[in-house]
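Figure 6 in text form: structure in, sequence out.
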């Protein structure tokens, strides 16, 4: 069955799209009509995703991207505008997890988590906003986490701090740019089965962190998060800004 082209004509940048959540989001957006700028530090995997999207759905490009670099961000946005003429959607998906108790985590490790998970979102929003204003509006979707709303798992302090910052930064962008027809919303996944979490799912001693606290009794699929991202990227969510969508199998409900 053909997908509804709810994103036809949209140009979307998806960071960290070489695998996992980012790849699923890029694929979902492309299936629904968007043309995609795939970005990642993983050159070979990112190129492969872009080529797959282009051959299956239409135009897509890959841009090498260190999300903590302001110069790289400018290159990504410039590349999108040069190739497609505008930017309508930014999905700030790239992120990392570094598990350690607070007393055992070095400042360098803590700072690195914040650089990749928070500074990248700030830079992405800052640099894409002028392009979206020129385009007449846009949608920014920032990937936070249920652990940006509540901290309950030992060892995830740096991750929770970073994702909580993403949640409130999203609201700041929403408030500042609503009059330019630019929306900003956040998505808060729970335990999702991705290459980043697979080792924890395979280990009986850590599987509980993803599945044991989830009332649905299973890890989520990347496509289930991608569908929420796609809704926020589309005009179907036109009355939503500064909002949060939780995709967690009921984790926060219990």
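Output sequence:
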């Amino acid at each position: 069955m053909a997908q509804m082209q709810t994103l036809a004509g949209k140009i979307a940048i998806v960071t960290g799209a070489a695998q996992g959540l980012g790849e699923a989001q890029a694929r979902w957006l492309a299936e629904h009509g968007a043309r995609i700028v795939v970005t990642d530090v993983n050159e070979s995997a990112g190129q492969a995703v872009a080529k797959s999207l282009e051959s299956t759905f239409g135009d897509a490009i890959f841009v090498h991207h260190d999300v903590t670099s302001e110069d790289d961000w400018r290159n990504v946005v410039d590349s999108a505008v040069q190739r497609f003429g505008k930017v309508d959607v930014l999905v700030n998906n790239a992120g990392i997890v570094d598990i350690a108790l607070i007393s055992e985590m070095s400042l360098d490790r803590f700072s690195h988590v914040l650089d990749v998970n928070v500074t990248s979102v700030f830079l992405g929003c800052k640099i894409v906003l002028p392009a979206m204003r020129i385009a007449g509006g846009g949608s920014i979707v920032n990937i936070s986490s249920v652990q940006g709303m509540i901290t309950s798992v030992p060892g995830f302090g740096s991750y929770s701090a970073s994702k909580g910052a993403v949640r409130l930064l999203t609201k700041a962008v929403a408030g500042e740019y609503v009059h330019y027809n630019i929306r900003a919303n956040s998505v808060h996944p729970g335990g999702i089965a991705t290459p980043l979490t697979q080792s924890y799912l395979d280990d009986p001693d850590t599987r509980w962190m993803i599945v044991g606290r989830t009332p649905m009794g299973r890890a989520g699929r990347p496509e289930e998060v991608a569908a929420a991202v796609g809704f926020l990227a589309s005009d179907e969510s036109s009355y939503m800004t500064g909002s949060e969508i939780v995709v967690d199998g009921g984790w926060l409900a219990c």
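Caption detail: The chain is about 45% helix and 15% strand.
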